[in-house]
Design goal:
This protein is of the alpha/beta class. Helices cover 24% and strands 26% of the residues. The strands form 2 sheets. The protein has a 4-stranded mixed β-sheet with strand order 1-4-3-2, covered by helices on one side. It has a 4-stranded mixed β-sheet with strand order 5-8-7-6, with helices on one face.
């Protein structure tokens, strides 16, 4: 039986990282519970003190196809390279120079939103189509693939 999957990021600023990944993936910040116009209103009604209102955030695929991504505040900063990372498919169906040009465009777009470009890996046929290694605003590695 297939299972639903949620991807969780430990981070320092859940709201900011959720906003970045929503933009990167074409997702949206998850809506507040029914009956509330905003998360702040919902959290107020739940009795969550203001200093804890950025303890968590989530983004969802507006089409409902992709996994929910959850961001939770943790006290420690990122320490080592991720053992698991996201590959953001920035050039589906493209090959060669056109593929790498599309990935470069996407790298520039995400860098303008707080990502950092780490390294470009040019194609090495027949199996490696090339990719660009980047980090999100909190240093989590991801590839534009």
């Amino acid at each position: 039986m297939a299972r639903d999957v949620q991807i969780t990021f430990d981070c320092a600023d859940p709201a900011a990282l959720a906003a970045f990944w929503a933009e990167a993936l074409g997702y949206q910040v998850q809506d507040p519970p029914a009956g509330f116009a905003s998360w702040d209103e919902a959290l107020e009604a739940m009795g969550v003190p203001p200093e804890n209102r950025n303890d968590a955030s989530a983004v969802v695929d507006p089409e409902g196809a992709g996994p929910r991504i959850f961001f939770q505040r943790v006290p420690e900063g990122k320490q080592v390279k991720n053992r698991v990372h996201l590959d953001v498919r920035g050039a589906p169906g493209l090959e060669g120079d056109a593929r790498m040009a599309a990935l470069e465009t996407e790298a520039e777009r995400l860098a303008a939103r707080g990502a950092t470009r780490v390294q470009r890996h040019d194609p090495k046929p027949p199996l490696d189509a090339g990719h660009i290694l980047m980090t999100d605003p909190e240093g989590n590695e991801f590839c534009l693939d």
